[in-house]
């Protein structure tokens, strides 16, 4: 009897499911090449943010009582705030790079490329802005070509999310676009309230409505909605075409919208993981009720439980 109990206990222990014990992973070491990229990001972003802070007080002093002075001051203030936002964005991207965030790496390509192109094609070629542009280009080169940097973001242990990096990057770029459109709409509304023509209020309300709709489309991208991808891509292409038609595609303030718009289209369509993400969600969509099969297989059952249905023709 004791041998039987021992045998049954051994059998039950052998068939019991094994409990996986998570082994703690050692912290990843940030290579020196990645620290170099982070330093370049901090230099460029820090200079842009400090420059915007120094220009903030003179811009506020430009406000006057007349309508033209108010309009001019609001436009300058908006541009200064955009430069400050770009500086803070580069600093935040430096934090993401330290965490081996693939999304941060992808956004860095677009942000640094747009900022560098804007500075070189613009009219302000001061030493500080030129060095910031060179730092952005150097950061792009290090991210793209240094083997230690590539291994840090794509090697074993690199974090990855449920959504593809390309989709998240495109959502981030769209979110920045939404913020800019809403900010411009708010400026137009303030001009209307200050006594300008009523058309400024209409334009401001329209821009804010576009920002709200863009937020809805951006949220649908997270679920792999192919229609949302088409709408976002068409909107980005429309921005590029409008800039080219206006003939201002090489202006300081418009090269960044063109670069970011092209980045949205590229990250939604070109990466293989983005294509698979939208194709998988489209394939998983439920079929229409009309296409559902109506034929049943197996023996038919009657309404009364336990009583089989009579055969056909009976």
Description of the structure:
The chain is mainly alpha-helical and 314 residues long. The protein has 2 domains: 130 residues; 124 residues, no CATH class. 71% of the residues lie in helices and 0% in strands. It is built from 11 helices and no strands. Helix 2 runs antiparallel to helix 3. The longest helix is centred in the first third of the chain and has 32 residues. The radius of gyration is 29 Å and the shape is flat.
Radius of gyration: 29 Å
What is the helix tally? Answer: 11
Would you list the SSEs in sequence order as H and E?
Answer: HHHHHHHHHHH
The number of distinct β-strands equals: 0
Given the helix and strand composition, which structural class is it?
Answer: mainly alpha
Low-pLDDT runs? 18-24, 294-304
Question: What keyword list fits this structure?
Answer:
mainly alpha; 2 domains; 314 residues; flat; single chain; 11 helices; 0% strand
Task: Please outline what is shown here.
By secondary structure, this protein is mostly helical.
Secondary-structure map with pairings?
Layout: H1 2-15, H2 32-60, H3 67-98, H4 102-121, H5 127-145, H6 147-154, H7 165-193, H8 198-221, H9 226-246, H10 255-269, H11 272-283
